[in-house]
Amino acid sequence: MEVTEDKEEREDEEKTDSQEPEDSSTDEEAPLEDDSAEPKSEKEVSEEIEEEEIDLEAEVAELKDKLLRAMAESENVRRRAERDKENSAKYSIAAFAREMLRVNDNLRRALESVDEKSREENEALKNLVVGVEMTEREMLNAFERAGVKPIKAMGQKFDPNLHEAMFEVEDKDQPAGTVVQELETGYVIHDRALRPARVGVSKGGPKAPLEEGSNDKKPSDSMSKGQSVYEKQAEAQSDASGSQVDEEL
Predict the structure, then answer these.
(1) Which end of the chain has fewer CB atoms surrounding its CB within 10 Å, N or C?
(2) Looking at the domain 163-209+219-248, which fold is it?
(3) Domain ranges of the chain
């Protein structure tokens, strides 16, 4: 028994001796703590905070700009939609009204074809004329309710937006470019020309007076534009077309 115990003690001592070098090597390989890292100073921390604030302010400004642009675009779309809706309501009947003007023209021609003497002599014809006059009057009232109104042309200065020059008339008493004859009545629908008035324009007279607000040396842009358009129309009209209009009159 004693021999066995001695043997076990020797084995335990050998194991202890063999483990001691490993423990020492483990202690040597353990990483040392880095005591060289120093905490950031208040100045460095403040600079980092300022940089972050600048970046955030730039991002906020960019997002604000995008928001304002999106809101402006949305407002423009809304206004365009409202304008299109308004124009659609105002001018949707333009094509139909233009066709109905021909009907009104025929009613006027029918009335002008019957003289006063024939009306007095023929009672039936007189009643027919009265009925046509009432029809014409009602049609003109319907036009006015829809925003369709006749254009005043006689005695007015030629306006290429409202008048169509068919020929020129030599008239030294009237200022040049004045409407002196009206072949066909023109109409507007609200603020747009539905059908221009076909007119004859004077020439050879004194120059038309300048519009208010213009000077003697430089006429207004609207007058210059109107004159140039009229000159183009006058050049396009040949003597043959002028004679045809005279025959129609």
Answers:
(1) N
(2) Nucleotide Exchange Factor Grpe; Chain A, domain 2 (2.30.22)
(3) 94-146, 163-209+219-248
Considering only residues 238 and 184, tell me which one the structure prediction assigns the higher pLDDT. Answer: 184
For residue 143, CA distances in Å to 14, 87, 98, 148, 188 come to 126, 17, 10, 5, 10
Beta-carbon count within 10 A of 202 CB: 21
Residues 6+ apart with CB under 8 A from 147: 90, 189, 190
**pLDDT tens for each residue of 179-199:** 999 999 999 999 899 999 999
Helices (H) and strands (E) in the chain, counts: 7, 6
Length of the chain: 249
pTM of the model: 0.56
Task: Classify residue 97 by burial, with Cβ atoms within 10 Å: 0-12, 13-18, 19+.
Answer: buried
Q: Which residue has the tokens 């233009």?
A: 98
